[in-house]
Amino acid sequence: VQYLEKEMGVLAEAGVRLKVIGDVAGFAPELQARISAAEEATNNNQTITLVVAANYGGQWDVVQAVKNWQVAHPDVNAGQLTQTQLAQYLSTAGMPDVDLLIRTGGEQRISNFLLWQAAYAELYFTDVLWPEFDSKELTKSLEWFESRNRRFGKTTEQIEA
Question: Which of 14, 53, 54, 67 is 20 to 30 A (C-alpha) from 92?
């Protein structure tokens, strides 16, 4: 609550749109209300969208998407649900999928983070801990990403055809 109160003016002035993804229902009512108010206050900002994952898990996100789709389509059998339809109910609906997922601290797993959205992401692992991940480290990861041959699930033969 204190952070949102402190930073909202700066975010709004910079044109930042705030989006919080995750199960915020587990937070105190005051924090839920503040998150909602902050998202509403910045909803029309267009400089950049700051997405904060709080109490978020990729498995939770997919389950919530299915539940929300079913509520919106009560008379439709879930067997008719398509990937495109479900994607519209994820917490990141309307945002581009992840292109580059950077995992710091020497861990080589995605830990239930953006499972759906990172399906075709390039995964960059570094031993550098998050507090030390600076612009130099970001540049290294971007250079690595630039060198990748992105195929989005296709084989080399399919791309050349």
Answer: 14
Residue spans of beta strands (DSSP E) within 36-76: 48-53
Round the CA-based radius of gyration of the chain to a whole number and report it: 19
Q: What is the mean pLDDT of each successive set of 10 residues along the chain, which is 161 residues long? A: 88 94 96 95 94 96 97 95 97 95 95 96 96 96 95 71 58
Closest C-alpha among 99, 104, 110 to residue 126 = 104
Element holding 21 (H helix, E strand): strand 16-21
Q: How far is it, in rounded angstroms, from Cα 65 to Cα 92?
A: 10
Q: Which residues pair with 100 in a beta bridge?
A: 122
If DSSP states are collapsed to H, E and C, what string results for 80-128? Answer: HCCHHHHHCCCCCCCCCCCCEEEECCCCCCCCCCCCCCCCCCEEEECCC
